[in-house]
Amino acid sequence: MELIRLRDAGMCRFIGMTGYPTAMTRRVMTECDLDVTLSYAHCTLLDDCLVTEILPAAEERGVGVINAAAVALGLLTDAGPPPHIAQVVGEQICAAARRAAEVCQRHGADVSFLANQYSIQRSGCATTLIGTAKQRHLDSAVAAAEEPIDEDLLADVLAAIGSDRGHHWTAGLLQNN
Predict the structure, then answer these.
(1) Rounded CA separation 47/167 (Å)
(2) pLDDT in the model for residue 20
(3) Is the pLDDT of residue 177 over 70?
């Protein structure tokens, strides 16, 4: 209620939230007067529940959605995730990401570039946040927004991920997942 009062008083323009669990995101959109949500790692080569679960609920409620984490917190990079991320997501998801990277390597492609292309071009969101530690990462993300996806490569990557696509890791309280 306090956030609504602040918004109505002009103290803030929008009420927003972010979080990983899709069940929690859908619940907040349903039960609260939310203007925008940021969803991360849910429109990736590993998982597209942003498109199938979050966007339909957001459209129904008039909530804006910001897409983020196209490389799934480092999972979809040649280097793979940092150890603390690998521990959180578990071996099954890490193995699926490694298979995606291996397919890209065999094709002479960069898994991060394909991951950015997929997330930017297929999310249905007006905004996709891309993490950049270096100028070359930013340049690559801009190119990923403009260059058409190699559909054969994408099909091979998705086939390699197989039934592991769409698996979620647990974040926060179990009842929110």
Answers:
(1) 7
(2) 81
(3) no
Number of domains in the chain: 1
Q: Are 164 and 158 in contact (CB under 8 A)?
A: no
E strand segments, 52-176? 64-68, 127-129
Evaluate if residue 172 carries a pLDDT over 70.
no
Dihedral sign for Cα 84, 90, 91, 93, please. Answer: negative
Q: Judge whether 171 lies within some domain.
A: no
Predicted model pTM = 0.90
C-alpha gyration radius of the chain:
17
Burial class (CB in 10 A: 0-12, 13-18, 19+), 76: buried
In a domain, residue 172? The reply is: no
The burial class, CB within 10 Å (0-12 / 13-18 / 19+), for 118 is buried
Average pLDDT over residues 74-101: 94
Residue 65 sits at φ, ψ, to 5 deg, of: -125, 130
Element (H, E) at 45: none
Residue keyed to tokens 């609504």:
4
Structural tokens at position 75: 């999972």
